[in-house]
Amino acid sequence: MNSFSVALAVLLIGFVYFILGTRSATAARQSGSRLHSLPHHYGLYAGMMASLPALFALVVLAIGDDIVFNTLALDFVPDAVKAADNYKEVIVLAQIANVVAGINFGEQPQWVNDAAAAWLGWADTSRLIKTMVAIGLAAGGGFLATRQLAPDFRSRNAVERIIMFILGASSVIAILTTIGIVFSVVFESMRFFALVPVSEFLFGLTWNPQFEGAERAGSGQMGLATYGSVPLFAGTFLISIVALSVAVPVGLFSAIYLSEYASPRVRAVVKPLMELLAGVPTVVYGFFAALTVAPFLRSAGMNLGLDVASESALAAGLVMGIMIIPFVSSLSDDVINAVPQALRDAAYGLGSTQSETIRMVVLPAALPGIVAAILLAVSRAVGETMIVVMAAGLAANLSLNPLDAVTTVTAQIVTILVGDQEFESAKTLSAFALALTLIVITLGLNFIALQVVKKYREAYD
After folding, report:
1. What's the average model confidence in pLDDT over 273-278?
2. How far apart are CA 219 and CA 42, in angstroms?
């Protein structure tokens, strides 16, 4: 059985124990016994104890077998191959993996075929072990759990402890994942800055990583490749400003209308329709920008005597602004609705009109949440990739004219890391330096948002 089939079998066993535990508790209550918890808590405890340890063991074994297989497969590599100057474990393992998957690029050395044959045998053994361990743990864990299900057993407390453990483990995984992402980007960025000076990267006005030049470290030679990131960040902020010029007014005014003026029937229709914009894939927005908005802007510009690029920042920014309208609108609407009605009633009692109440009372009270929503939209705009790749192009032009073709940091990262890359060159490593700088900027925006919320937050009884 493959891992997916084993996981389904474990879940089925857990469901069976859930039914058995629930029925056992129900029967005990019907016989006159007083239960500490509701019957379904007993079933949940039995089902969790049957499925969760088995699923955890299955995940650990699925991750561990690849590590073990890679180590064992390297033992088949001859010493002569390991001694070669161009030897890399990643390439060797890719050769073996291709043969295992049935993908043959010509005649392979005998040691590659031997390693692939051994790999297939290890995989069969691993599947057998995973199946036996997972199903055995599921059956054994459920059996031991059902034996604990006495009427006075605190099953609800046990279930809550298990859920608390799962929530805590999920939080730890999220934190460790974030730390891992940051450290992986930092380490690769340090390798890049060993080749390219930090000052050139941060303050350089030309981005041209297509040709590798002389070694940078300590040589003082500029070479053919230039890694000035200013045009990329200028293009990123230019497109983001255009997007925010669309999203912030439309989103904020929509939120004010839906929360203060619209009837419940209109709100029930308009709000879900507006939030559907957030569910449209970004590649669809990219097609819309490239095939509809960009040609329209170019033809309109020609009629007005303006030179509009076929891949302009204006086209990408307008479509991106439409995409992030729901972020501003939905969050601002929730914040405005959270303002106590007593503040509105007090303003009306003093003779204020509805518009004056909104401008002078509601919006100032909701300001921290609105600012946080706008900064979240900024982060979303800065990190957008697909629309920029399809609508704004890849030209790293240093321009503040929205009618020109520009590119963004994320578009360049995608371009650099597409396909097979040599992770020893400055060109490839520059993607990590761009990512690190973008992370710092995003963290800075989030920090500003937290400070604004903290400074202007108001508590109401």
Report:
1. 82
2. 71
pLDDT in tens, 204-245: 888 887 645 444 444 444 445 788 888 888 888 888 899 999
- Residues forming beta bridges with residue 92, ordered by sequence position: none
From the CB of residue 321, how many other CB atoms can be counted at a distance below 10 Å? Answer: 25
User: What is the predicted pLDDT for the residue at 52?
Assistant: 92
Give the pairing of strands 207-208 and 226-227. Answer: antiparallel
Strand partners, 208: 226
Q: List the one residue out of 389, 383, 231, 399 whose CA is nearest residue 315.
A: 389
Q: How far is CA 161 from CA 49, 156, 168, 235, in A?
A: 12, 9, 10, 50
Helix (H, G, I), strand (E, B) or coil at 88: coil
Backbone angles phi, psi at 208, to 5 degrees: -150, 80
Mapped onto helix, strand or coil, the DSSP state of residue 156 is helix
Q: Which two tokens stand for residue 228?
A: 């000035």
Domain ranges of the chain: 3-191, 227-456
Non-local (6+) Cβ contacts of 48 within 8 A are: 14, 145, 159, 162
Residue pLDDT, tens place only, 300-329 = 888 888 888 878 888 888 998 998 898 889
CATH topology assigned to domain 227-456? MetI-like fold (1.10.3720)
Q: What angle do CA 21, 27, 29 make, to 5 degrees?
A: 105
Query: Element (H or E) spanning 174, and its range?
Result: helix 155-193
| pLDDT for 461 | 54
The DSSP code for 425 is: S
Exposed/middle/buried for residue 302 (C-beta within 10 Å: 0-12, 13-18, 19+): exposed
